[in-house]
Every structure is written in C-alpha cells, then in structure tokens.
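Reviewers of the previous submission asked for a worked example of the structure-prediction workflow described in the proposal, so we include one complete record here. The input consisted solely of the amino acid sequence. No template or homolog information was supplied to the procedure at any stage.
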Amino acid sequence: MGWKAQGPATTGRGVCLYAQVDSFGWDYRYQKRIRKLNSVRLKNIVILFFAFGISLGIMAQTDPHFTQFYAYPMGLNPGLAGVNGGDFRVSAIYRTQWTQVMTPFTTMGISADVATQKNINFGINILNQTAGNAGYHYQHGYLTIGYGGVRFGEDDNQQLSFGIQVGALARKFDPAGFQFGDQWNSITGYDPSVSSADLLPRTSSSDLDIGAGVSYSDARE
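From that input alone, the workflow returned the following structure tokens.
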C-alpha cells in the first residue's frame, strides 16, 4: 500500500492524496496466512485423533490398579528394572476395596528387581486379584530384562533405562455364583436348583503379554 499525489481535478489549487492498494501483494499474503492456518489446524486434528486413539486403548484396559502404584515398580514400567539406588529391591503390596457393597476386590502383588555391574538388569513381578460372588480371579506374571547404561550430565548423575517385559495373564470366574432372571419365581424367590438358559461359552481366558518401557532418573541435588 502506498500514497501518491494527484493534481486537482478542477481549476482550484491543491493536492489530493489517495491510497493505492497493492491488491496482488495483499491477496498473496492473505492466501499464505490462510494456508498456514489450515496447516496448523490439520496438525492439531492429527494430534487430537492420535491422542483420542490412545485414550480409547487406555479405556479398554482392565488391569488391577493401586493408589500407591510406586510400591509395585515392575508392574508400573519395565524400564524401572534395576533403577533402585542399590543392588536389589523387593516390594509387596496389598489392597482391598468396596467391602461394603459386594465381595471385595482383593489384590496382592510382589515385585523384585536386581541391578548388575554390567548395566543389564532383571526383574520379576507376580499379582493375584479376586473379587465378587462369582469367584472372579485375575493373575499375571512377568519377567523383565533392562539396560541402564545410558548416563549423562555432570558426574553421570542422570540416567536413561530401557526394559522389555514378557509374561502371561489369565482370567476366570465361576458362573455358579451368578443369579439369572429365569432362576427366580414370584412365590419362592431365587431357586438355585433351576438351571438358567443363559449359557456362557467361555469362563476363562489366558494371553501372552509383552511390554516395553523407558525411565529417566535424575540424582542431582
């Protein structure tokens, strides 16, 4: 945009200033800005879509959980194997919940890991959970191997550790503990001698489970 002088259109004296807009340059800058905004929007959409996909995966998990999760390190992150400030670490945890409304969830686990001089670390963790009148059981067991030799910073007081975890998990329940609608009648109430027409094709499952993790620790004061 620039200003130009133009002589008087009549016989009177004077100078008229008028603005001349460089429409091509303005359109180019406008279109460039629009393209930039569209690029940012597309990037945000991709990030949101990716985060939404991760959140769906997280919501699908039914693994046992603890309030004091740090007391079960091998169940928290395979990368924590050997990151214990010593030669070895053993921890155990127990939790019971919802005791007032049902047969409570009772969860117990044990975790152990050891650090070696060659920065190759090992860990193991075992967990058992029971709940409900139907005798729901959940168990898992894992072996972990990790590497903790990536150190940096002043005096090597910062560390990256990597871990891979391989194990198995199993779930089962006893359908004899269920009460179905067709086992009830209006006179005597629930009749356990009546077989329900609701048949469950499976009452147990087991799966191979593999995981990996990375941890960062900082020993600076």
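Strands lie at 2-6, 16-20, 88-97, 105-114, 120-131, 136-152, 158-172, 184-185, 189-190, 204-218. We consider this example representative of the routine output the project will generate in years two and three.
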